[in-house]
Specification:
7-stranded parallel beta sheet; Rossmann fold; 6-stranded parallel beta sheet
Length: 362
């Protein structure tokens, strides 16, 4: 069996790394499976993509399609055009897509139009918010995929509600947690820890990038003011996303405890998360990592496609109203935050289960 694995943006890289390792392990055991790795080039900032290949020990891609930049439609069409050329020249038995970025959807469409089967890793998650580009990507991908690998039972139920048959759904766990657990001993202390003399559980990590929070300057300013004001003077470390930086620089926000830094590599960022008192974010993947590491997480979103991080884990969804920040931080500093636990099958062996299914059942 030959599989073609797709990666395009930062969230994908944590998910493909354990898959490639599992393929190589299966090859060492004499199983007939081979892979090629296609990087669509969707993310082009070095700190947002290339360092992930180095830090997670991902082999160099077989091809980089170079489809960076542009509008949603421009990037989708560029990926489709270039991936179609690649797939026609390099036929495969199965295209494996992960997550919910533009590359996930675009490559799924191309594969199906060329008569190639598609497997979706992290299938079936839903925010039910059609204003999110990722939700559209998930729905389109899941409407086309032949095989679904899910992180939770809820995801499988979502798929069956929309017509997927149970024999094509495989509850395997979370590949991103495979990567997290495999690299915990390799986390790297970034220079800012010593530069600011940061102490464990005495600083806050912050990430913001979603349009609802960062595209309107006044909204972003309100959020930042509430976070800074209610942080009990703890240092706030803010690795700023490129889309956020464009707006943030004009706001004139400054505080003694606010430290703006460049995006961090995977090993450095998760070192900081593990040491932090809490994480404030609007990300989805970070809520999974904080859940496994037992770190309180405050999510500035009105919905989540990862409800298990709230019902089981350490995450609390507080919405996008800046006034919700103070009560959440008060709860944290009053030591009233829930302990949380780790969801089923988030055990570091998900990729192995996926490759076993591909080689033995399909």
């Amino acid at each position: 069996m030959k599989i073609t694995i797709i990666a395009g943006a930062r969230p994908n890289f944590m998910k493909i790394a354990p898959l490639i390792k599992a393929v190589k392990k299966a090859q060492d055991e004499g199983k007939n499976i081979h892979y090629s790795l296609v990087h669509t080039g969707q993310h082009f900032d070095r700190n947002m993509s290339e360092t992930f290949f180095e830090q997670l020990q991902i082999p160099h891609p077989d091809v980089n399609l170079g489809c960076a930049g542009g509008t949603q439609a421009e990037q989708t069409s560029a990926i489709m055009i270039e991936f179609e050329k690649y797939l026609m020249a390099n036929p495969t038995d199965l295209v494996v897509v992960v997550g919910d970025v533009t590359s996930t959807m675009a490559c799924s469409i191309v594969a199906k139009k060329l008569g190639t089967k598609v497997a979706h890793v992290e299938a079936g998650i839903r925010s039910w918010d059609m204003t999110m580009p990722e939700e559209i990507n998930r729905i389109v991908t899941d409407s086309l995929a032949d095989y679904f690998f899910t992180t939770t039972h809820i995801a499988g139920e979502n798929l069956m509600r929309f017509g997927a048959t149970e024999d094509r759904i495989f509850f395997v766990g979370n590949v991103m947690i495979d990567t997290l657990l495999a690299n915990m001993e390799r986390f790297r202390k970034p220079d800012i820890v010593d530069a600011l003399a940061l102490k464990e559980k005495e600083f806050i990590m912050l990430t913001l990038h979603r349009p609802a929070n960062v595209d309107k300057a006044e909204k972003l300013k309100e959020l930042m003011n509430e976070i800074v004001t209610n942080a009990h003077n703890l240092p706030i470390i803010f690795p700023i996303h490129p889309r956020t930086a464009k707006i943030f620089t004009d706001l004139g926000i400054a505080a003694n405890n606010l430290h703006i830094v460049e995006p961090m590599g995977y090993l450095e960022f998760n070192y900081m998360v593990r040491q932090a008192k809490c994480v404030i974010t609007d990300s989805g993947g970070i809520t999974e990592e904080t859940t496994v590491m037992g770190v309180p997480c405050i999510t500035l979103r009105d919905n989540t496609e990862r409800p298990e991080t709230v019902t089981t884990g350490t995450n609390e969804l507080i919405g996008t109203n800046p006034k919700a920040i103070k009560p959440a931080l008060d709860k944290l500093f009053n030591n009233q935050w829930k302990k949380g636990s780790i969801p089923e099958l988030w055990d570091g062996h998900t990729a192995q289960r996926i490759i076993e299914i591909l080689t033995e059942e399909l």
